[in-house]
Design goal:
Elements lengths: L3 H4 L1 H10 L7 H11 L2 E5 L5 H8 L5 E6 L2 H7 L6 E4 L11 E6 L10 H14 E12 L15 E4 L5 E12 L2 E10 L5 E8 L3 H10 L2 E7 L13 E8 L4
Helix pairs in contact: 2-5, 3-4
Length: 247
């Protein structure tokens, strides 16, 4: 089940305000890969910003967005020239249909159990055509990003109707490679809205083992969106993988 902040249509409409297109961020990194691929599957597509930009930029191939959150897809569907699928890789299957599968926004971290990681990687491997690529990102656990997920580091944006919207995190549990936290949204004249989340932080060797087990080999990895290498204390583990040659 998707987090409330993604299921709820009102909160979902605020997502792009809090996470706009950043020329130094994840969408800009993935955008050339999307434009170079004829058939693209965006897993956890959210509001569809990446695929929207691709179509606006002239992509004429197949663009498919998959997301379990109805609220997010309701926002994404403002464009009707993209295929939007409500579900996840446990409910929807694809058979060698895509040249690129992408998971942006640390969506990969919602796979919190070994079984979930293996099942979803197997589904992604099955969705890729020969020579296809899987591009995704996960936060480096050594960076300990969750230590800044506190009310002391809030974010505020202005909605189109002029309302100020405040978002703040509070970590509730850390252990076993996962971090659980709440996100509270506050607007003028309304009760706070709270969403619960849990994310998994995989170490780089463990991630490589899961990929290998799914028949995927790493093409390259970066530690930040500028293409810098992975280091012990980098913020990100950005991975581009492909079906292993032995497959």
């Amino acid at each position: 089940m998707a987090d409330r902040q993604f299921e709820d249509h009102e909160i979902a409409q605020w997502y792009d305000l809090f996470c706009p297109w950043d020329p130094r961020g994840d969408f800009a990194y993935y955008f050339p890969l999307v434009m170079a691929a004829e058939r693209v599957l965006d897993v956890g597509c959210g509001t569809g910003m990446l695929l929207h930009r691709a179509r606006e930029a002239g992509h004429t191939g197949r663009l498919t967005g998959l997301d379990p959150a109805a609220g997010m897809l309701e926002v994404a569907r403002r464009r009707a020239d993209i295929e939007w699928v409500h579900g996840d890789l446990s409910t929807v299957s694809f058979d060698r249909e895509f040249d690129l599968v992408v998971m942006s926004g640390h969506a990969f971290q919602v796979f919190v159990t070994d079984e979930s990681v293996r099942t979803n990687l197997a589904a992604i491997r099955a969705a890729l055509r020969p020579g296809g690529l899987f591009a995704f990102d996960t936060r480096n656990p050594a960076y300990r990003a969750w230590e800044r997920w506190t009310p002391e580091y809030p974010r505020e944006v202005t909605a189109p109707d002029g309302r100020r919207i405040r978002s703040e995190h509070r970590v509730t549990r850390v252990g076993g490679g996962t971090v659980s936290f709440t996100t509270t949204y506050t607007t003028d004249g309304a009760d706070p809205q709270v969403s619960d989340s849990t994310l998994r932080f995989l170490e780089r060797p463990e991630l490589a083992g899961f990929l290998d087990g799914a028949g995927l080999e790493i093409v390259h990895q970066h530690g930040d969106w500028d293409g810098s290498p992975v280091t012990e204390d980098c913020m990100e583990i950005i991975t581009v993988a492909r079906p292993a040659a032995r497959e």
